[in-house]
Structures are given as C-alpha cells and as structure tokens.
Amino acid sequence: MLKAREYHSSAVLDGLLYIVAADSTERYDHVLDSWEVLQPMLYPMDDCSTVTYRGKLYATGSLAGKESLVMQCYDPESDLWTLVNCGPLPPWSFAPKAVTLGGLMYFIRDDSVEVDVYNPAKNQWDKIPPMLQVHVGGSLAVLGGKLYISGGYDNTFELSATVELYDPETRKWSVAGQLPEPIFWHNSVSIFRQFMPTALEEEDEKRGLEDPFAPNPPRENLQELR
C-alpha cells in the first residue's frame, strides 16, 4: 500500500483491489503492479466493512467517534463517494461484517446473533434466522452460494473454533466444522469460486430484485432453466 494503516477493509472489483480506510481509498492493479490514490469517503468511518454490488463499492461502518452506522457508495467511473439513503440501519457495531450473495448484502454485528439483510435494488432491510452463537471478532465469507462465519468469542466470551454455515435455500444455520484452533480478529476469503450455470445465476439475480425473502423455487423448476 502507499501508506501503513490499520482498521481498514478491502474488496475486489473488476480485477482490481480496493483498500478503504477512514481517511483514504487506494486501488491496486496487479497487472501493472501499481497503486493509485482515489477520493476518500465523504464521512470518515471506523472499522468499516466493504462489499461490491453492480460495479460499485458499498462501505458500512460507524462514523468516526460516534456510535451510529452509515453506508457510503463508491463509483469507480466517477471516482466519487456518495452517502446511501438506505433507511434505518442495524444497531451500532464496533466492527461490522458484511458480504454480498445473490444480489443481497448480509450484515452481521459483532455482539449479536441477529443477521440483517439489505436489498440494494429495493432499498429494503430484513432479517434471516439468527446464528447459533455470536462470533465477536469472527470472520464472514461466501463459498458455494452459502455464508460461512468462523471463530471469534462466543456467547460465554470464550474463544471459539466453530464454523457456522447458512444455506439460503433452507434458510437454516448449521455447524459446518471446527477450526484447527480457536481464533479471533482474523479474516477469510474463498479463492476458488464455484460458478453456477448462467441461467441459474440469472434466476438468483431475479429473485434478489423481485422478492429476496420469498421461498426458493423447487429444484425441478431450476432444472428447466439449464
């Protein structure tokens, strides 16, 4: 990076790595092996979580020095940040975790089992069933169309090695396994992405735009889309 920093977030968009911090935004091109300074956020945020959606970055975090969450959007084409008017956000969290899946943004707070879901296309918030335990300082990632959250401190504030899995089709959480050892303040990422057939991707996107919380279509109907 162009300067040392902590408490920042990162996201990949169109093959470029973006680093988002309270006071600056940078972009890395691995082909050219070069860094570029971009416009900083309009409002500095501490410990924000950044995701991508439809060619833009969405960063959610607490305003510097305040216990209130905001969401800001970065457009690479204009190199500008804007404040997202997304209605009442979830309660304040020191280090929120967020990922995108199926056209939706899943938002997990550090001190709660509740999971909030934001539909950018409809500007709508909702919830999914709660996790089996809290994951204070845990890590959230997407793999194979499912959410995985791992480690952190549990409900008794003991370090946990538990990995939970959420399946959007069944709308249920389950224990996927255990880490080699309890860990916290870590991060996780899926390197090998499992691509779905194009027709199924379009169907998932359509569901996200129309009614993301409607029951999933029967598997036999999905077969017709292949």
How is this structure best described in words?
- This protein is mainly β and 226 residues long.
- It has two domains: 1-85, Beta Barrel (Lipocalin), CATH 2.40.128; 87-193, Neuraminidase (6 Propeller), CATH 2.120.10.
- The chain has helices spanning 198-210, 219-223; strands at 9-13, 16-20, 25-29, 34-38, 45-53, 56-63, 69-75, 80-83, 97-101, 104-108, 115-119, 124-128, 139-143, 146-150, 162-167, 172-178.
- It has a four-stranded antiparallel beta sheet, with no helix packed on it. It has a four-stranded antiparallel beta sheet with strand order 5-6-7-8, with no helix packed on it.
- Strand 15 and strand 16 (172-178) form a beta hairpin.
- The longest helix has 13 residues, at 198-210.
- The termini are far apart.
- Mean pLDDT is 85; it is low at 194-201 and 209-226.
Number of domains: 2
Average pLDDT figure? 85
Estimated radius of gyration: 18 Å
Q: Could you tell me the number of beta strands?
A: 16
SSE order in H/E notation?
EEEEEEEEEEEEEEEEHH
The portion of residues assigned to helices is: under 10%
Assigned CATH superfamily of the largest domain:
Kelch-type beta propeller
Shape: globular
Q: What fold name stands as the CATH topology of the largest domain?
A: Neuraminidase
CATH class of the largest domain: Mainly Beta
Unreliable sequence segments: 194-201, 209-226
Architecture of the largest domain, CATH level 2? 6 Propeller
Structural class, from helix and strand content?
mainly beta
Helical region count? 2
Strand content: 35-45%
Quick one: biggest sheet?
Answer: 4 strands, antiparallel
What is the terminal-to-terminal distance? 43 Å
**Order of strands in the sheet with most strands:** 1-2-3-4
Region (Disordered): 202-226
InterPro entries: Kelch-typ_b-propeller (IPR015915), Kelch_1 (IPR006652)
Keywords: Kelch repeat, Repeat
Organism: Thamnophis sirtalis
